[in-house]
Amino acid sequence: MRLLACLLSVMLLAGTAGVAAQDRFNLPDGPGRDLIYGQCRTCHDLQSLVDSAGISRRAWNAVLDNMRGFGLRVSDQQRAQILDYLATYLGPNPPPAAPVAEKPAETVDGAQVFADQCIGCHQENGAGTQDFPPLAGNHDLFLAPDFPVVVVLHGMGGPVDVEGKHFDNEMPSFDFLADAEIAAVVNYVRSSWGNDGLASGVEPVAADTVATARSKAMTPEEVHAYRASLK
Amino acid sequence: MIKRLTGSGLSRREFGLLAGAAGLTFGLSPASVRSVLAQEAPNPAEIIAGKSPDMIVLNAQLGVMETPLKLLRDHAHTPKDVMFNRLHFPHEGDASWYATTEPPGAPRRDDWRLRIDGLVERPRSVTIADLEGMDQAKRVMVIQCAGNGRSYYAAKEKVAGGQWKNGGMGNIEWEGVPLKAFLDDQKLVPSSLAHWLTAHGWDQPATFEGSGFAKSYRLSDPALDNAILALKMNGEPIPAVHGGPVRLIIPGYYGNMNVKFVTTLLFEAQQSPSAFQSVGYRMPLVPVEPGQFEANDYTIYNSVPTYGQKIKSVIFSPLADDGAKAGDVEISGVAFNDGLATITNVAVSADGGSTWQSADIKAPESPWAWYHWSTKAKLASGTNKLMCRATDALGRTQPLDGLTRWNPRGYEWNGIDVVEIAA
After folding, report:
1. A14–B24: do the CB atoms touch at under 8 Å?
2. Are the beta carbons of A131 and B93 separated by less than 8 Å?
3. Does A131 sit within 8 Å of B92, measured CB to CB?
4. What ipTM was predicted for this assembly?
5. Which domains does chain A have, with CATH numbers?
6. Residue among A179, A18, A206 at smallest CA distance from A103
7. What residues of A are in contact with residue B296 (Cβ under 8 Å)?
8. What is the DSSP letter of B321?
9. Which domains does chain B have, with CATH numbers?
């Protein structure tokens, strides 16, 4: 059993070969994990968490306070979820790994996925920052039926001009999200902040579209090239 | 792509696919597992261009890496490709220019301005060319991350953050303009209210809400008398990743105090409110225990910044994997402190602290450089526990139990060094 666990961990690393360096660190499955993927990678990769594994709940609580000083902005509820996850799965006595039950698709709320995963960089109002492109008023959202889907799934790396502003940053992959979650967040972004006025006759993304895109592995650079080909 | 990579939710088919992709079969030996892991480790040169592939990465996105002691011991002055690195913000987008060991290029260098402002009547701004035209001075010094050795505190209670061993240091020759003379020459006319000097770096946090990087020093701090606005590192323009085109170097002070990419020097009434000065990079004034004092309990009243380096010594040879045999052996390494007093003794034990002998100490290049020391001893068959402990002319020495200085951010480890050798 131990050998199996060891092999699995090797394969986790091997299975992610080719993706950006900051994506190499996978965390044990558990409630709150995806929130950490969404919020923490704005500033640092997850080695900081993996290497700190084993510290007490108190110490994790202090880390979160500390991160607030470095710009982490989450709701009290999100903070509590993150702390519970860290204190449990990266605490002194982590439970054995167990798969988390799949969330039923009908409960997925695109606005909630956005709040958990996207606002660290793109901001609550979708306006972005000087470093991260805006989603509000971003015509790229409608370049192709699957375009923002592949960006969320595989990330995107390379310089881009968005609505007249230049950005050069790498978006990490969010392939840990379920198909329905990615579909919901893309539909949310495409219909928020007046974005529904940018294009007409757009069909909502279905989970099947995400599943199809997921079956075609792409690097962040290939997604960048795909975007250029659609321009 | 398989959606959930973690957990035990892989089907047999998925398991087989992954195992095939990784070139794995059942019955794999631990050694080959390690080699697969090693292949998947990030290449330091892809994180910071020009870094040796042998560097140990502690955080890719922040460019944090330490030097294996085997590389460190080979050089009198630590070369740029193997020097440890610590950045505080992602080197992405606009900040990607400093993710290299090359010095900043001409436009950036030519356009660089160092502003001196705050509580002065006559604020100034100078270029790199202005600085190059002034008298220069050299400082050879150990530069060391305040978190170097943090991993050793785990023997008491593990501390969050990069789990540094001993490789977060280097011995470097810096060259630049002496700070005090420079400030005098600028004829700034500081206000009598100005008691602090704050240095700001060019680097900025990834989000608006984050705290910028700044460090403050008392204007009366004698350490500033030795400080330089460094333009060169080991004889060439400072590599971008190590703070070029201009870095504030304060000999004897921990790494974070030596602000990279300096853009601004401010005369201030108070120290900077930057989180890196007011909460981070500080040590409690009194010993603290886990649970008694948390990582955010630091205030400017109950703690001090990580200024001067605590006396420390490190064994460079033999290391655990040098293949040392039983019998005669030369034990050698380095020692250093804040430069305020000569290191007068390095005591070495080859038997786990039962007996100690004084090593021969070579005179250092400067009060802040590392001192090389060596001594002859005998290794017994089996496990040998080597130890070293430095003491200076002020009687300052390393704690036999470094854990007595445990602190919730894991700074300033200076317990005696211990290396176990299987001979």
Report:
1. yes
2. yes
3. yes
4. 0.74
5. 19-89 (1.10.760.10), 105-230 (1.10.760.10)
6. A179
7. 62, 65-66
8. T
9. 104-305 (3.90.420.10), 312-422 (2.60.40.650)
